[in-house]
Amino acid sequence: MPAGRCAITRLRLYQFRNYPAATVTLGPAVNVIAGANAQGKTNLLEAAATLALTRSPRTSTTGDLVMWGQAACAIEGSVARPGGDTTLALRLERNGDSARVSRTATVDGKPRPARSVLGLCPVVMFWPDDLQLVKAGPDARRRLLDILLMQLEPRMAAHMSRYRRVLEQRNALLHRLRTEGHGGSELDGFTRELAHHGARIAVARSQLVSALAPLANAALRDLSGGDEDLVLSYVAAHQCVCDNEEQSKLDLLAAYRAHASEELARAVSVIGPHRDDMSIQLGGRSARTTASQGQQRSIVLAVKLAEMRHLAQRTGASPVVMLDDVLSDLDQTRRGLLVSLLAGRDAAQVLITTTEPLHNTADMRDAQHFTVTRGSVVPDV
Ligand SMILES: Nc1ncnc2c1ncn2[C@@H]1O[C@H](COP(=O)(O)OP(=O)(O)O)[C@@H](O)[C@H]1O
Ligand SMILES: [Mg+2]
After folding, report:
1. Which numeric CATH code is attached to 135-290?
2. Which ligand 1 atom is at minimum distance from the Cα of 70?
3. Quick check: 360 pLDDT over 70?
């Protein structure tokens, strides 16, 4: 069990999505946030996650977070952590009519670069889409790794955003090369920069998957008691071992050379961490093609528990766990087991949203309950 937990004790929203203004005092363990559809349950979890990650895990269009018709929104959270309590705040402001939004992060009232906020309140999120994690395309698995990674190593967030930019520029150049036939001399510079950031991302992700793998396998046993091994491994599109940044960069550069004509023909960068994946095997077979629906669910829960335990081991405190509307998709046994593992053994603060009342279930007896109605959250009496 980790030394302590990270918990959001108070969350305040101002003009965030459908919340004009709200203050919620959360309990240290399980918090159940109930409400009908479209009342603001997911928005509330999104606010907490956006504060912790400095951007929304749900949308890349930051302007969507500001209440319609308003110019700015703000989120503030008081966070209790073993290293001392801290207050995080994030303000997002539209820049006139443009789609651009400026972000201001503060820690204990002092302005900070957004990146230095990462990891101060580690979070693990479980959205309904995550139930497709095994079957879905690689994008979802890469995103899971990246969100975890940037909380563990905030400087990786800089490599990721730089990588995305250079990738866009390089693809635009490949397109120009194909249509207009010039620009080849610039390509080399982009390729080297892409390989530089790409190698760091690939190595960091690969090490992360190696750390998650045994935790996920153990968690699957906790959850389903089966005896088939769950094996997670990082699969790079350029087939590198990915245990060394220098070597990985050389491997990437060699792969770009090998794929030069394909890249030109398709006008996209076909190699690099944006094409990598995490393979999931159960009992020696690809879970994607062979695992049953029930097994896939158990695998996803195991991966989420692994994320949480890895964050707890590395940071010394259990992260805040958010479960958005996913409990109703689990059978009673799995649900009880999950909640008792999260809140009991792992001692995490858990924020659960649900459309069904969960008051009377045994696993929720000690929880704090709230009801959300049209952008207002009220504790149940
Ligand atoms: N920027 C925004 N301003 C105002 N309302 C918004 C904004 N973004 C989303 N909404 C509204 O928030 C409502 C609640 O969304 P959500 O939290 O996803 O509901 P649920 O309770 O089903 O999880 C939706 O009706 C949506 O129209
Ligand atoms: Mg929802």
Report:
1. 1.20.1050.90
2. 3
3. no
